[in-house]
Amino acid sequence: MMQVVNGILMLARFQAEGFKPFTATPLGFMNSLAPMMAITVVAALRPLLAGNLRALALHVLTSLIALLGPPVLSHLVARAWKREAEWMRYIVAFNWCQAVVTLVTVVLILMLAIGGGVGAGGAGLVAAVGGVLIYWIVLCWFMAWRGLGLGKLRSVLAVIVINVGTGLLVMGPQMLSIAMSGAVGAAGVGATGVGTTGRGVVP
Fold it and tell me: What pTM does this model have?
């Protein structure tokens, strides 16, 4: 575990040697998914305890897509540019770093919520969240550049494909849920209208 922590700390300082401590094996890949899965389980407790099964299902589905989107899309990028040999170590490091950045972002958002939103101190927290997200994008670029061995321009394209692609995939279930809610609402209004009309016609 200390090797993983050392690797994360080195990558956080944009040191390419930070890739070396990560285990480039299928088991190492599965272990790297564990932190994000734990965060997903904890976040799922709220809709579960509230008995909101639709929200729970939506959370689980979007979380799985967010978890597996980067590995799938980055592998497509690595295969397209013949960097499959470097992909496993890259994605293991990516997953661990993503978990840390996600945890930091969640803590900042919780602090913002506890503080009552954007105020004197809230503005600073909002800026901090924005700073973390910008830092993460830059770190993604660095990991694609040094981890996959892509050129600097190709690394920019890789970041766009992986992050924007994952974001669009995550939006899919949410848009479907909104569409289904709208359809159910329209059906309810239609049924109410038919019932009202029927009562007006029958003496």
Answer: 0.82
Angle at 6 between CA 9 and CA 87, to 5 degrees: 85
The CA distance from 162 to 152, in Å, is: 15
Residue with tokens 């990558």: 11
Residue 160's nearest CA partner among 72, 74, 66 is 74
Report pLDDT for 195.
Answer: 54
Among candidate residues 88, 76, 97, the one with its CA nearest the CA of residue 141: 97
**Which residue matches tokens 């990516």?**
94
137 domain-assigned? yes
Q: How many CB atoms are closer than 10 A to CB 108?
A: 19
Residues 194, 88: Cα–Cα separation, whole Å: 59
Q: Do the domain assignments include residue 202?
A: no
Residue 160 placed within a domain: yes
Domain that holds residue 156: 2-175
Q: How confident is the model at residue 82 (pLDDT cuts 50, 70, 90)?
A: very high
Give me the number of domains the chain comprises.
1
Task: Specify if 181 maps to a domain.
Answer: no
* CA 6 to chain centroid: 23
